[in-house]
């Protein structure tokens, strides 16, 4: 009986001490903080676009389609293809993957063309070179958002 009373007394004294110093109920000096929200200084890791299984599929076949849920547009189908450039022009590019899959993508002012993280013009791409395209499926054609030239260093 004495043990239970003594434990309760120590617990009450500890709670009183924490309340007196402003450290109780939700954080350092913030008694009305919402414990369900993350702290302002925490940085959450950004989720990757592709899962490890999808990356393996892309490596083995050379092409992949992924449906992403966005706040603004709802479900969006993203297309990723790696392969050899079969045709390239000012408004389109065609790639052939290693499994024989061939697809054309629309190029517009939004499309970014990169080589080793540096911006290059669409005219810098040549037939027979390796490239990777990330595109958005639209009713008017698949719009290339990013084209990465995969030239050896």
- Please give the largest β-sheet: 8 strands, mixed
How much helix, percentage-wise, in residues? 10-25%
CATH topology of the largest domain: OB fold (Dihydrolipoamide Acetyltransferase, E2P)
Number of helices: 2
The best one-word shape is globular
Low-confidence stretches: 1-43
The structure class reads alpha+beta
- Counted beta strands: 8
CATH H level, superfamily name of the largest domain? Copper binding periplasmic protein CusF
How many discrete structural domains?
Answer: 2
User: How large a portion of the residues is in β-strands, by DSSP E?
Assistant: 35-45%
Please identify, by name, the CATH architecture of the largest domain. Answer: Beta Barrel
Mean pLDDT across every amino acid position: 75
Task: Give the class-level CATH name of the largest domain.
Answer: Mainly Beta
The N- to C-terminal Cα distance equals 78 Å
- What is the H-and-E element order? HHEEEEEEEE
């Amino acid at each position: 009986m004495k043990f239970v009373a003594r434990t309760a007394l120590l617990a009450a004294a500890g709670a009183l001490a924490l309340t007196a110093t402003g450290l109780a109920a939700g954080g350092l000096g913030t008694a009305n903080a919402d414990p369900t929200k993350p702290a302002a200084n925490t940085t959450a890791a950004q989720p990757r676009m592709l899962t490890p299984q999808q990356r393996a599929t892309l490596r083995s076949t050379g092409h992949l389609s992924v449906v992403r849920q966005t706040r603004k547009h709802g479900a969006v189908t993203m297309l990723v293809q790696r392969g050899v450039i079969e045709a390239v022009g000012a408004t389109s590019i065609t790639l052939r993957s290693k499994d024989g899959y061939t697809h054309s993508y629309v190029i517009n002012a939004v499309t970014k063309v990169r080589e080793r993280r540096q911006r290059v013009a669409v005219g810098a791409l040549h037939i027979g070179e390796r490239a990777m395209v990330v595109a958005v499926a639209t009713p008017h054609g698949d719009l290339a958002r990013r084209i990465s030239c995969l030239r050896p260093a």
